[in-house]
Amino acid sequence: QVQLQESGGGSVQSGGSLKLSCAASGDTRCMAWFRQAPGKEREGVATFYIGGGSAYYADSVKGRFTISRDNAETTLYLLYLQMNSLKPEDTAMYYCAAGFRSPNGCDYHSWGQGTQVTVSS
User: Fold this and answer.
1) Burial of 25 (0-12, 13-18, 19+ CB in 10 A)
2) Residues 31-58: tens digit of each pLDDT
3) In what helix (H) or strand (E) does residue 19 lie, and over which residues does it extend?
4) Rounded distance, CA 119 to CA 28, Å?
5) Residue 13 backbone zone (phi > 0: left; psi -120 to 50: alpha; other: beta)
6) I want to staple 92 with a disulfide (CB 3.0 to 4.6 A). Which of 35, 48, 59, 77 is the partner?
């Protein structure tokens, strides 16, 4: 089981930026950010595959969000989500997830407790 701890959420105005961080202790091969707004289903925002360094994004955040990993850290997996040009519809609880590769992409076995992002118009 991987322990995950998110940080970096907060409140910003539309057009602003935030950077989320996720510290993962334990072995993992793929990590991702998900979000869930009140009354809506959880959706995947961005996925990062640790072995190859490839990243994938939901259409709704492409060009605005960037997922990355701190390669200098060898004892923890530090995952980031840089969010620029934020919109009110980005308001949600953001969760970090970690897992292992599967034929369908990534099977997530560990989840963080979430960090709130609120964007006002």
Assistant:
1) middle
2) 999 999 999 999 999 999 988 889 999 9
3) strand 18-25
4) 31
5) beta
6) 35
Please provide the distance, in angstroms rounded to a whole number, between the alpha carbons at the two ends of the chain: 39
Read off φ and ψ for residue 90, nearest 5 degrees: -85, -5
| DSSP-derived pairing of the beta strands 10-13 and 115-120 | parallel
Tell me which amino acid residue 51 is. Answer: G
Rounded distance between C-alpha atoms, residue 111 and residue 25, angstroms? 12
Which residue has tokens 């910003």?
Answer: 12
Provide DSSP, 49-118.
ETTT--EEE-TTTTTTEEEEE-TT-SSSEEEEEEE-S--GGG-EEEEEEEEEEETTEEEEEEE---EEEE
Rounded distance, CA 27 to CA 25, Å? 7
pLDDT at 40: 96
Structure tokens belonging to residue 113:
């407790």
In sequence order, the 6+-apart residues with CB closer than 8 A to the CB of 24 are 2, 3, 4, 31, 76, 77, 78, 79, 96, 98, 110
